[in-house]
Amino acid sequence: MNTSGSEIKIFAGNASKELAQKIADCIGVSVADCEVGTFSDGEISVNIYEVVRGCDVFLVQSTNSPVNEHLMELLIMIDALKRASAGRITAVIPYYGYARQDRKAKPRDPITAKLVANLLTAAGADRVLTMDLHASQIQGYFDIPLDHLQGGKLLAEYFNSKNIEDLVVVSPDLGSVTRSRQFANGLEGDVPLAIIDKRRPKANVSEIMNIIGDVKDKNVILFDDMIDTAGTICNAANALKECGAKNIYACCTHAVLSGPAVTRIDESAISELIVLDTIKLPEEKQLDKIKVISTAPLFADAIRKIFSNESVSMLF
Description:
Blueprint: E1 8-12, H1 17-27, E2 34-38, E3 44-48, E4 56-60, H2 67-83, E5 88-93, H3 112-123, E6 127-131, E7 146-149, H4 152-162, E8 167-171, H5 177-185, E9 193-202, E10 205-212, E11 219-227, H6 231-242, E12 248-255, H7 261-267, E13 272-276, E14 290-293, H8 296-307
Parallel strand pairs: 1-4, 4-5, 5-6, 6-7, 8-9, 8-11, 11-12, 12-13, 13-14
Antiparallel strand pairs: 2-3, 9-10
Helix pairs in contact: 1-8, 4-5
C-alpha cells in the first residue's frame, strides 16, 4: 500500500471533465477544484484552488481536437502542479494525440509522438497512464514509467454479453491484424479472423482491394484502435456486405470522428458502432447507431493500483 501518507487528487483538463468525474466517482473522491481558461490574447490560464503539496496527483486530459490547445493545457497544468510541490504527478491521457506521427515515413518527417513524450517529461510528469496507443513502440519514447491499458477488453465484454452467433472479427487493414487477433481472443468461443487488404493512394483516402477469410453469412465485427474520417471502416463495411456478411458491427477505442466521419457512418452498412469515451463525443456526433462505453472503471482501477504501489499488469 501507499506508505507515504499522501492523498489522492484527481484533476481534469477541459478535454476530459466528464470522464474525470466518472473516474473520481468510481474511486470515491471529488474532482479537485481548478480552472483552466484563456487570457484575452489566447494564452492559457490555469488556477489551482486546492493544496497539492505532497499529494499523489492524477491529471486527466485527452489530447484530441483542438489537439494543440489540449496539449498545452496539459503541459501548463503539470507545470503548475509541479511548482505547487505535488508529491507525484501522473498524466492520465486516455487518447494520446500525435500518436500517428511515430516514425519517419519519408525524409525530413518529424517524430512528433516522441517530441510530445519529451514535453510531458520536461513539464514535470512523473508517470503516464494511457490507453491503446496507435503504435505500441511509443511506450519506449518515454524516460518515465508508462502504463498502457487495453480498451479491447471492454469492447469484448460488451460483445460477449450480446451472445452473437457466427461471429468473425475483421481487421480493417494489415497493420491492425495483431490488435484484432488480441480482441478476437477476448471473445467467447473460437472466433476466426478475416483481414481486409487495402491500398491507400493518399492520406485519409482508402481503397478496398480484397478480403482474406470467409465472411459469407457471418456476423462480423470490424475492430480498430481509432476511427478518424471513417473512410477505412465504412469502405470495409460496405465491401463486407457485398461479400455476403450479415450484420456488420464496428468498434474502436478512440472515436476521433473528424470531417465527414459521422455522415459516412450513418450512410454505411454498419449496423452498430461501439466506441469508448476516451474522447468526449459531442452532441452533433451522437447517432442512434453509435453506443459509448465508459473507460472510467478501468482507469479508476489503474489509478488505485498506482496510488497503492501495486502491480497494474493484471489490468492488461
